[in-house]
Amino acid sequence: MKGRVRGAVVDPVTDFLQDETAGGLVLLVATIAAVVWANSPAGDGYEALWQTKVVWLDLEHWINDGLMALFFFIVGLEIKRELVTGELNDPRAAALPALAAVAGVALPVAIFALLVAGGEGASGWAIPAATDIAFAVGVLALLGDRVSSGVRLLLLTIAIVDDIIAITIIAVFYAGDLSPAWLAAAAALVAVIVVLQRAGVARIAVYAAVGVALWFAVHESGVHATVAGVILGLLTPARAVQGRDVLRLLEHRLHPVSAFAIVPLFALANAGVDFGGGVLGDALGSTLTWAVVAGLVVGKLCGVTGATLLALRAGVGTLPEGVSRAQVPGVGALAGIGFTVSLFIASLAFEDEALVDAAKVGIFVGSLVSGALGAALLVAVRRRATA
What we know:
By secondary structure, the chain is an all-alpha fold.
């Protein structure tokens, strides 16, 4: 984050959105680089690099299991901030984005399940459930003053609730064979963190050391290792500790690392699809691909928009200042940009490379269409308002 932690007061939401906007552009560059690299004469080197073993894991797993744990730690911090001091702290304000996010997860999953109908690729049901904050906010940044800060706030809040649901899905439905011993060790380490907090220990380095141990225990337990990052984020105090705003300090230091390094590196390692050898044709002929596209484009748009408008009609919650009902479909469409977490879930759901490639093509197409549709809808509303 670009704001100062001490001194002038910085709006954490504005600070967060600034990093997400710029990070979205870096993420786009990394994604294009991955696709170009995978389809270049050096494409074999692309695959070989990420399969290179370092200690007991290959580079791809160090990124997906290790660095992405830090990404999910920051997600945990954002969720904690929103729950304690943000929009989700007020039940009335939280009701609307919460309902929109739940519907924006449930309908894409239902559409995907209906199209796949228990066939090949059914385990990827959660792929279209995710929203990529960085890309979605990046699209809003391109629209400039055509959209208000309230639109950004509504999209951000829906995406954060979406993150909570996605994290729960990963932890519950994409766990491996569970090890009771390692789960007990992870629980003991969580208890250690709580005890340290009660004892007034404020040194971040101490918690970092316990956090590394927690990551290892969760990794060995069968639950995906990134869940450890979320747990640590949620355990971080949202109030000042010995005069320091620890949560804000950690967000300030780590969010740029996530936005400009971890997430783009994840995209570089995971977004590369070699479209040669009939891969693109196979993907475009795959029900899995179009189930992902339909879930992201139709499911997110209809789920978020429908739930929001129904909630407003029922008197549940209110839209942020400066947001009209006519802008809600644009926000719903942008929620269909599922890129980062969708790719992450695809890597957990499938071992068959053909299924992974089909899912990736669906994620690319669905996210591109959702982004273009969301931008077009918001611009159209602005033009009607100024006509």
